[in-house]
Amino acid sequence: MAPSAPVDDVSIGTDGIRLGQFLQLAGLLDSGGNAKEAIREGDVSVNGEVDLRRGRQLKVGDVVTFAGRAARVCE
Question: Which of 6, 14, 48, 64 gives a 20 to 30 Å CA spacing to 56?
Fold first, then answer.
């Protein structure tokens, strides 16, 4: 499913980052606790699929969506 909003490119400066960290870096959530809860509740998707793993390793090109906002992992 395509996100309803434009996708923001977020530079991580490396090859990979964990999902919980990326949510904070991208400004989709304010804290690790909020990220953990949103992921656990199934409110976060990666490349269009819900992912319940806060430690999921994202790679360049992955698109994370939460609350109608989307961010793409960029190097």
Answer: 6
For residue 66, what are the β-bridge partners?
44, 69
Cα of 68 vs its chain's centroid, Å: 12
Q: CA-CA distance, 35 to 19, in Å (whole number)? A: 9
The closest alpha carbon to 65, from 30, 23, 16, 36, belongs to 23
Per-residue pLDDT reduced to its tens digit, 3-56 = 456 899 999 988 889 999 999 999 999 999 999 999 999 999 999 999 999 999
Amino acid (1-letter code) at residue 51: D
The rounded Cα 8 to chain-centroid distance in angstroms is 11
Secondary-structure class of domain 7-74 per CATH: alpha beta
* CB-based contact 11:72 (threshold 8 Å): no
Tokens of residue 46, six digits: 């990666």
